[in-house]
Amino acid sequence: MAIKLALAGNPNCGKTTMFNDLTGANQYVGNWPGVTVEKKEGKLRGHKDVVVTDLPGIYSLSPYTLEEVVTRDYIMNEHPSVIMNLVDGSNIERNLYLTTQLTEMGIPVVIALNMMDVVRKNGDRIDTQKLAAALGCEVVETSAVKGEGSKQAADRAVQIAQEGRRTLPKHTFAPVVEEALERIQNLTAELVPAEKARWYAVKLFERDGRVLDQLKLSAETAGKIEEAIAACEKAMDDDSESIITNERYQYVARVVRNCVHKNRTGMTSSD
Length: 271
Ligand code: BGO
Known about the structure:
Layout: E1 3-9, H1 15-23, E2 27-31, E3 38-43, E4 50-54, H2 66-78, E5 82-88, H3 92-102, E6 109-114, H4 116-121, E7 125-126, H5 128-135, E8 138-141, H6 150-163, H7 175-188, H8 197-205, H9 209-215, H10 219-236, H11 240-259, E9 260-261
Parallel strand pairs: 1-4, 1-5, 5-6, 6-8
Antiparallel strand pairs: 2-3, 3-4, 7-9
Helix pairs in contact: 3-11, 5-11, 7-8, 7-10
The protein binds 3'-O-(N-methylanthraniloyl)guanosine-5'-diphosphate.
């Protein structure tokens, strides 16, 4: 059966470079349905049954930009076999914010930790084993511009897709948030696929309009969910969307503190 490998990551993380390296001349370019966002697909070199889709560069999976919506809809509706999440290792804290969202979507995720040449040049070190354990997915070091590691990362992604190994997110939020998410998950268990239950719970907690429209909740369920959200907002004295954003940033900051050893004079890829 054909394998769908989706490349996802922040703008400027090296996705185009990686996509070109992985697919060579085997590419077709079009637009995503109904929007003027470019869609690029290609066959993975050496694997005629693996289609690589280059998703738009995004910082988050909120529903506020066309690129975010295209990416969300693709992952939710087309169910790629595996997501290869390109992370700019020299800008790791900003990039991992998206990773925490991708790992909630019930699809296997492999991280291609890119720009490793920049990381090394800066004298920084990233403990990839610890990073993989903290994020719940495999991490392969790459330097797409030098063609280093890209093939290994893609081969690993294909293998994980073939094994059908799902990524389970390792991060948890504050206990009061987890309580609300569990309540929402219980209320929606019959309405969403089990592997995507946490993603839906988080999106409902954020009062994501697209997910609310899609699920068409009964007034009773919607009311109970709203009660759970409101109780958490009261306890944390903040709105639900900001609560999730802050919780993600705090989790990522902890991961970076544990896994990244910075040389104080280092620069990022954008310097
Ligand atoms: C320019 N290492 C290094 N050092 N650079 C990389 C790597 C890597 O592993 N991977 C990609 N780049 P895109 P998105 C550029 O274009 O693939 C570089 O947005 C320049 N251009 O070469 O476009 C890559 O698709 C002039 O750099 O990313 C590119 O995700 C001077 O990162 C940039 C210096 O890669 C973004 C760099 C005219």
